[in-house]
């Protein structure tokens, strides 16, 4: 610690702190432009100059390290004059077009001039003008170079935080301008973080352009619905109409960053696809009706299936309260444990449960990625959880974290990794087993013998140098964090993958490391959905639904209802119930399995075979097109609640508009449905439900809504680690030499919400197929060609994107382009999916029959077409 | 040697490929005369560096030209020493005889006229650089002689093929 | 008469060839250093010589070398600053064109002293002839074993690479040069860390000017005391002065440090052109504040010039005679800095732009009352507040011109024209 005196106040600060940081702690305001907390100082704007005793010149406080006994002054006449002079110079060429500038009213330059600027300028010469018209750098970014003050925050943000290296600075001196390659940002991430950090109106959001003045906006702090990172964002609405999103430097795991989905993908709330009125199926077609009519219809249909099985599927994008109430509804009103929260995979709960309760680290990401090693397993964190990726990059570049990657898909983060290990598609389980084996071999006597008995003493090695270095890094580090892509659950080998994860965590623990583990979810509230017990095997709090009578009884008492003791079916098994004619009512909330279940044919047949299909959703999904009853629900932003993110942080989701058209809140609809069965759900308001969750769910105990401040609050780890069971390595995978299709999120889309954002669709309208340079070469196809991807089940056509970092044999198609119907290529129980890729010829038409089955939109939407 | 080979050879001098952007741009400019977008992309691809980095350098440094220049680039120093020794008059003369303003190229593509900052040859001020060569102690007479020589040289070179024109010898 | 040291070979035919250089005793200093001295001893010799950097700032070279950490697993680099962009300066070009081996040997001895195995010579791209000569010299020296693996049979390995600049004065600023070498826009870096600790590729790096490095072999051969005996003790050695502008005999002169400016201009360089009188002299490149006629008795060394309110800088001596308009000279100087400002920091980028606009107006006879006060205020806002010394140099230059020739500026404004036209 060193001592510093600023303006007469003395303070002890950590060695290495800057004068600016010390002043901040004393509450002394020093103006800055180029300074950005998360980046190394640039010290170019010279706003923050201060006097330091003993030094002749003023020094930039943002870049001056405190030395012991330093005496600093920030409020002398010389400093005031200097600040005023800097602002005077900045204004000399600034266009001062504040009345027509989007930034007017929230512009740092305006504010700074008010606070520190000259009252009048002597400058009378003509101003520099770069361009008379603003430059459209990309679909979402528009630039007015004349207003730029060269703080370089945008460029540094783009390169150092986002890692996109899309923005740059051209020319020099007075001609310096920020722009993209050849004046375009057409191929950048479109994350808009450059816009966010621009202190003036130089970089602007095109979609928000000229739409509102900041003081016209009602701003609401809430959570992004687009992935499990759970970024805080602020929605600006004008007269109830969605206007823009921005992020705040002070709040959330993300601080001022967001990704393209968060910043530009919230306009889906206004999608044309919104369901306006309830609909019921009459004479084969869905027709709009009133809520009463829908109620009557549903009451009749429900009565008819009362004695048959029921099942429920809810989206992991819904708030905790809705999910909690949904499973309560299913368990107490529909009297079934047939409940699931994903149609994309079946969770091997016997393996997942212990991982979640024994190893899952409910702690800030910032903290866990500060560990000596971070191993990222599977997926592509750059595209799936972009903001998490920013933080990982920062950890690797500035916090000495050894970043280790093990996945089939390459990602941009590989460049910052100490080791990036490529495994064959679907090869994560054996890959992890190799790491476990390698670690055990290296650890030798440090591990107990019984561990070796199952793991085996010799590494199931790829024999690659990379795997050795990865193991060495894990062995050397004193602490390690595993971040695991949830996409790994897609594989029929998910169980083996989870087993090997378990082995790895156990071995690391036995070696005395501090170990942390978190999943990287692509659904905003996947953690919450599991915590809330939207699983056949688990009650809220991940308590066993059937094996633990005491737990079930206790919860039942709290609910004033009995919880069925029969084991439930997951979604996969529910489809089978449908198939064999045993499913009475299948209740789907906010989920579109017809698009996402990895076998479109099967799910289509099964949904058709259920006696009664109820779909409650904000959007007219493909699945809704097959429903008997469609209940229009509030969308994101139209009801309050909480999300629990990857970190186990519960955060407040706020309402910024009323439900569109005749849509009703999800909770209200559950009450409506329960009433049709002459029951009530208690309690029924969001606040009360949250209170009940905080009472009955152990991990949420003690949380209060008010306690969820701007940064939310962490849920608690469930129970102590389980006694270490080890699992044998999976059999060595058979070598498949053809192309293997994997899927997942792309940067611009991660689910049916993003696909309904008009802005995201203009940014990334083309679905694509990604493959390696060598495979493309062999197939004689090149970047931009239309290609056909064909599996045993079906085929699709899309534009080829050649990626030179892709390994041979890997084909990637993003999951969320409805037009592709990717799931029609997939076969249940098979993933990755073997495919062939061929060049599409213009004349070539996809043969009817082999292609996707007739569109359910055609079936159902006739009805919706009428836009009720 | 192909451009790629030359660039790769230059890149071998540095532990980091990014360092080789400047030498690569000089090589590419020798090859292409100037540096349009596709050339910048090619340089980025050869070195495996970000395109924007290449673009940044191509515009920061004055010796790189993103737009074409004439066969002979007349770069007249107008910094203090040369100014004191009469470069202003020389500029006026050049503008007159070439019929263009500084910063532009004659319609026949022969000459581009620029003023430049100090060439580091003030002992022979006023100085002008043409291609690789410095011409010092200039006055109107010497300038005219030089222009005549350059014109003659261009006459021998195959018409409009700039790349084929040998740089004026020492 | 002062016996030339650095320019000894300059007018010798084929002075740029190895044979000529060897015939004059070339590469003996390298052999001597490798044979008789440890690297630390060479650093010590240079320290004792009081050699101060010839690039402009006059920082003691031995002390700079001493900052390089002795241990550490990172490679060390030597960078030679041959960017020579300071208007009025041409000494480094002449060394490289006519006696490049002197630099090559200087590089080798210096690299040995600091423990570097790689040197980059950053030569401004316009210097095509110098670059070719240097390339040739490096090839010759490598052939003869003065460079390469195991220099002269020792275990010292040394490689020199040339990096061509591409036209940006700021690359002469040492940290901007490092950025440029790393393939970035040449903008100065924050210090600390200083290059000696974390410079090129974050490795310990020494940056020295061509002339500085050229002095080193002579110090090794003749000893630090010989060097120190030339000129003032605190600022000693033979010095290259570049004289240009309105004088009879512009050219490169080698004379002891500290000789009076008047003697340099009037005796060696022949004085003003016929019929003219000297009005003022810029003693060290345009970054150095101008000295009016009556200040010419100042000694040409770092300390004396600093005491006189100017600086030795790059020793680019520009003579301005009484036929010349000072407003025009000042405008041209500020235009230069404005053009060459890298654009990083506010005061330099914006302030110089503003200053240029006002100066051009005054020069064109469109000045207005208050303009000079505006310029004073700008100088104050810029000086001391810029990120690097470029902006400072500009502000100092303008301030000096305004101070010494205020009446000329005022006349432009009052008469609404240039009195010299
Ligand atoms: C704007 C600016 C331009 C400079 N230009 C040069 C130059 O062209 N050549 C040079 O040797 N030093 C130049 N310098 C000085 C260098 O930064 C540095 O001090 C010098 O290269 C160190 O070498 P020395 O210690 O041998 O002088 C410049 C400094 C500044 C601030
Ligand atoms: S003073 Fe500032 S803008 Fe000027 S050259 Fe230095 S860093 Fe760049
Ligand atoms: S904030 Fe310190 S110089 Fe800009």
* Ligands bound, unique: flavin mononucleotide, iron/sulfur cluster, FE2/S2 (inorganic) cluster
As for the CATH topology of the largest domain in chain B, it is: Glutaredoxin
Distance between the termini of chain B: 24 Å
Name the pair of protein chains with the most residues at their interface, and give those residue counts: B-C, 44 and 54 residues
How would you characterize the overall build of this protein?
Chain B: It catalyses: a quinone + NADH + 5 H(+)(in) = a quinol + NAD(+) + 4 H(+)(out). Chain B: Its cofactor is [2Fe-2S] cluster. The complex is a heterotrimer of chains A (868), B (170) and C (421). Chain A is of the alpha/beta class and 868 residues long. Chain A has 5 domains: 2-75, Ubiquitin-like (UB roll); 124-270, 2-Layer Sandwich (Alpha-Beta Plaits); 279-342 and 526-714, 3-Layer(aba) Sandwich (Rossmann fold); 350-520, Dimethylsulfoxide Reductase, domain 2, CATH 3.40.228.10; 739-857, Beta Barrel (Barwin-like endoglucanases), CATH 2.40.40. Chain A is 29% helix and 19% strand. Chain A has 26 helices and 36 strands. In chain A, the strands form 9 sheets. A 7-stranded mixed beta sheet of chain A has the order 15-14-27-26-25-16-17, with helices on both faces. A 6-stranded mixed barrel of chain A has the order 31-35-32-34-33-36. A 5-stranded mixed beta sheet of chain A has the order 2-1-5-3-4, with helices on both faces. The longest helix of chain A has 17 residues, at 494-510. With 170 residues, chain B is of the alpha+beta class. Chain B has 2 domains: 3-60, NADH-quinone oxidoreductase subunit E (Arc Repressor Mutant, subunit A, Orthogonal Bundle); 72-156, Glutaredoxin (3-Layer(aba) Sandwich), CATH 3.40.30.10. Chain B has helices at residues 3-11, 21-32, 37-47, 51-60, 80-84, 87-98, 140-156; strands at 72-77, 111-116, 128-130, 133-135. In chain B, strand 3 and strand 4 form a beta hairpin. In chain B, helix 3 (37-47) crosses helix 4. Chain C has 421 residues and is of the alpha/beta class. Chain C folds into 3 domains: 18-228, NADH-ubiquinone oxidoreductase 51kDa subunit (Rossmann fold, 3-Layer(aba) Sandwich), CATH 3.40.50.11540; 238-321, Ubiquitin-like (UB roll) (Roll), CATH 3.10.20.600; 326-415, NADH-ubiquinone oxidoreductase 51kDa subunit, iron-sulphur binding domain (de novo design (two linked rop proteins), Up-down Bundle). In chain C, 43% of the residues lie in helices and 12% in strands. Chain C contains 17 helices and 9 strands. Chain C has helices spanning 18-23, 28-36, 39-49, 61-66, 91-98, 100-114, 128-143, 174-181, 210-222, 224-228, 261-268, 302-307, 326-340, 346-363, 371-382, 389-404, 406-415; strands at 77-82, 118-123, 159-164, 205-209, 238-245, 251-256, 278-282, 291-292, 316-321. In chain C, the strands form 2 sheets. In chain C, strands 6-5-9-7-8 form a 5-stranded mixed beta sheet, covered by helices on one side. A 4-stranded parallel beta sheet of chain C has the order 3-2-1-4, with helices on both faces. In chain C, a hairpin with an 8-residue loop joins strand 7 and strand 8 (291-292). In chain C, helix 3 packs across helix 6 (100-114). Chain C is globular. Chain A binds chain B through residues 165-172, 180-182, and chain B through 37, 40, 50-53, 55-56, 59-60. Bound molecules: flavin mononucleotide, iron/sulfur cluster and FE2/S2 (inorganic) cluster. Residues 53-57, 59, 61, 81, 83-86, 170, 172-174, 207-209, 212, 388-390 of chain C line the site of flavin mononucleotide.
